[in-house]
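User: Let's play a game. I give you a shape written as tokens, and you guess the letters that built it. Ready? Here's round one.
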């Protein structure tokens, strides 16, 4: 017969120690399960993807601002991309600060010219509008608008977007309106805080003014799950970067394969009505440690050269989206004309001939 336990003889330290060991053991199991799941997911993302898709169409984002910053004649660079490289699908930003330098005084002549040249070359255009459009510092807000309260700035932007759509909605060269660029990537760029309600108002405004064209929203390929952008647009576009410079880490290659993007596409299809996916920004220029024009070519070529350009296009083809817009044609032209290095330009011509 067992003896009754004398509770006064139980060691409180021993009880606490046993409880602590139990907590540690349970935590260890949980961490182990999480690690196994992460390893399985990581392994899936890096399994060999399907064969590269053959029937893709390459396009190009062109920024007059970036070309000018590189010291180029931006019109000359634009024409060369159309005529020499053979670009037939373009994404062109309308820079609010360059178009409306003074409140109410708008000059669309640069955009007019780009659309005219695209039309002449038989190309089509995604027109990117809003305060946040391609190229640094991401948000391109006129100085006069920055000084205004948020409500007044938003009303000024709404007015600018309205005139832009009304001006160009009869131009057949435009296939799609892009409203803002990666609006949910709030930690990147020099921008006001994101106002989701206002973003939805922008989308509604464009659809009301032109119901004949789809509205495209975009998001980061590596740093987002896409859901918030994809559910608000008629079409969705992802960025796609392979190697970047990260301060403190140096040059880093994203450890993800094409299945990473394919899995996100499947998830978004399940959660939304979205059925049109594209690569809207495929890395085709360096992500350098500083302003690219000041970085030695040898360092630039760590993250982009003619070999890496073809590898990136092949990677994007394995993801399987039909349209792939490249990011960096201005840099190709800068290498060719300012640095006497035409190899990347020539590789670009070859790729556009292969995947027009």
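Assistant: Ready! My guess for every position:
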């Amino acid at each position: 017969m067992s003896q009754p336990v004398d509770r006064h003889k139980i060691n409180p330290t021993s009880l606490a120690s046993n409880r602590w060991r139990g907590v540690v053991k349970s935590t260890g199991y949980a961490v182990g399960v999480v690690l196994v799941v992460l390893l399985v997911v990581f392994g899936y993302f890096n399994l060999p993807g399907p064969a590269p898709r053959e029937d893709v169409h390459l396009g190009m984002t062109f920024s007059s601002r970036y070309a000018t910053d590189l010291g180029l004649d931006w019109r000359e660079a634009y024409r060369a991309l159309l005529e020499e490289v053979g670009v037939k699908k373009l994404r062109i930003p309308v820079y609010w600060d360059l178009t409306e330098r003074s409140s109410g005084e708008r000059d669309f002549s640069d955009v007019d010219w780009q659309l005219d040249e695209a039309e002449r070359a038989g190309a089509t255009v995604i027109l990117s509008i809003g305060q946040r459009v391609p190229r640094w510092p991401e948000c391109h807000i006129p100085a006069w608008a920055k000084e205004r309260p948020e409500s007044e700035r938003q009303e000024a932007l709404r007015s600018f977007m309205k005139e832009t759509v009304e001006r160009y909605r009869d131009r057949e060269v435009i296939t799609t309106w892009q409203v803002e660029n990666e609006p949910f990537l709030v930690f990147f760029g020099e921008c006001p805080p994101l106002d989701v309600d206002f973003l939805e108002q922008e989308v509604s405004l464009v659809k009301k003014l032109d119901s004949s064209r789809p509205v495209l929203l975009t998001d980061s390929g590596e740093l987002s799950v896409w859901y918030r952008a994809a559910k608000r647009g008629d079409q969705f576009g992802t960025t796609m970067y392979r190697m970047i410079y990260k301060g403190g880490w140096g040059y880093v290659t994203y450890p993800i394969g094409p299945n990473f993007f394919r899995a996100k596409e499947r998830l978004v299809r399940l959660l939304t009505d979205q059925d049109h996916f594209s690569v809207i920004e495929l890395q085709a220029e360096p992500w350098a440690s500083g302003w690219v024009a000041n970085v030695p070519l040898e360092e630039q070529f760590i993250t982009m050269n003619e070999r890496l350009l073809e590898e990136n296009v092949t990677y994007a083809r394995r993801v399987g989206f039909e349209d792939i817009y490249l990011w960096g044609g201005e840099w190709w032209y800068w290498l060719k004309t300012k640095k006497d290095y035409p190899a990347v330009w020539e590789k670009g011509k070859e790729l556009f001939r292969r995947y027009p």
